[in-house]
Amino acid sequence: MKIIVTSIFVQDQDMALEFYTETLSFVKKHDVPIGEFRWITLVSPDEQDGTELLLEPNDHPAAKEYQKKIFADGIPATMFGVADLNQEYQRLLEKGVKFTMEPTKMGELTIAVFDDTCGNLIQIAQK
Predict the structure, then answer these.
(1) CA dihedral 105, 115, 89, 5 (to 10 degrees)
(2) Report field, pTM of the whole predicted structure over 0.85
(3) pLDDT band for position 107 (50/70/90)?
(4) Most Cβ neighbours (<10 Å): which of 17, 46, 69, 108?
């Protein structure tokens, strides 16, 4: 068994698609209409056959509440790995990304946390 798709709740799929592709440099894999929403998945440009990230609408009240509460408590919705955290931190700062935690060494990891503009905090990590 392996993880093929993981999801993240987003407030607006179009806004999320723009941020995750143009700012974070993910690649759109699927964009399929499903009723009033879409099945939008993204992949890493380095692993286009790897795990897909689903931009899941937070339309359900439980999803909205979950998303608001973990954001308010400063809990990242997910974590992405990067090869050089300081370089990625600088690149994202230059694109206007707002960080809630600057690069911080935690044991064997260095992490940073930013606001994805779609209702989530995202953690990036370098081993």
Answers:
(1) 90
(2) yes
(3) very high
(4) 17
